[in-house]
């Protein structure tokens, strides 16, 4: 994540000095709007809408895409729980799909999980690791499915020359404390579709029927939520955006260094990557779960099965199909009986138990990472 420093402090000071903390007061040229315009230009997308979290971005994108009660949405078995929660918030149900060794949704299992009620795929670019979007787009086109890209953990990354979050019908970014852009909490909906953008903007702003916007697409106002951000969030993001690409460049520069060292042993292997030339995240696979557990004792290394709510078996409300009120339970609106079990994605559990994330340390100088790579090689040999 980028460091918070003087530029963020200065932007916040200006907002406080003006005394105008709301986004939609006194014109549309505040920090939040400037951030959206700059993000659109930098990422290469027609529309960006800032919201208060990555979760809100996913929900808004699904609502905008017309996903609702009775629909099924394919989500990966390894992702932050919000990916599976988001379909429920629009009345749809998540269908859990295995990941492959790239730690992203497995296109072959996508094909197996499609039913007549499937309406969308939510590929997740986990840990700065990008999905096989060529295969996913081909499947979606064949079956006429929407693609809502969850790029919350890969803000700014590219897949074969295109920024993730801009390849599907809509994308979602998170600006949580631990993401590539950090405003504590925050998110964005990305899309090149005018109507989808209009609907997302209505949904995030209680229908926004009192606003004067362009790209209204003759869309009749409908009720929505309140997912807006304040100018305080917009100010931090506006100040941080110039730091995004330098951060990614540092990650990319460190990836081959770590791979060079860790490829010298047969005790582990570097996980496959769907765009290795632009890799900015590193995971390794060991032979056994015990080997991975031992390797994870090294500083800067984490075994993925131990990452709590990122593993589907720990999504307790999902697995038990519980909502805040049983009358609002989307599983009751499904067009078939949906059942979950702890072993339904056993392939994913096996991969996660043997896979470790290795930090690329963008805050550290290159010589330190060379030393770090040699130290990890020594630890596993």
UniProtKB/TrEMBL annotation:
Transmembrane segments: none annotated. InterPro entries: DegT/StrS_aminotransferase, PyrdxlP-dep_Trfase, PyrdxlP-dep_Trfase_major, PyrdxlP-dep_Trfase_small. One of its GO terms (biological process) is polysaccharide biosynthetic process. The keyword Amino-acid biosynthesis does not apply. The keyword Transferase applies. The active site is at residue 179. The modification N6-(pyridoxal phosphate)lysine is found at residue 179. CDD domains: AHBA_syn. It comes from the Bacteria. Keywords: Aminotransferase, Pyridoxal phosphate, Transferase. GO terms for molecular function: pyridoxal phosphate binding; transaminase activity. Belongs to the DegT/DnrJ/EryC1 family. PANTHER family: DTDP-4-AMINO-4,6-DIDEOXYGALACTOSE TRANSAMINASE (PTHR30244:SF34), TRANSAMINASE (PTHR30244). This is Aminotransferase.
